[in-house]
Amino acid sequence: MDPPRSDRPAHPGAAGLKAVLRAYERERRRSAQRVAFGARNLHRFVSTERTWLRDSVARLLPG
User: Fold this and answer.
1) If DSSP codes are grouped into helix, strand and coil, which group holds residue 62?
2) First to last CA, the chain
3) What confidence tens digit (pLDDT) does each residue in 2-61 have?
4) Count of alpha carbons within 13 Å of 22, Cβ hemisphere only?
5) From CA 42, how far away is CA 32, in angstroms rounded?
């Protein structure tokens, strides 16, 4: 037997679908920005003129 209509999840419709897609796109963009920020900072750190700082951090890494 089907549950009462009020217990079923509402179908999002066109407006709901647009909102869900916007939220997905916003999170995807935010994730890409985080990756770009990390890559940019890593590149700055590795290619810096202050090699003593980079080398001292590299010495702390295992291996």
Assistant:
1) coil
2) 63
3) 555 555 555 668 788 888 999 999 999 999 999 999 999 888 878 877 788 888 888 998
4) 6
5) 15
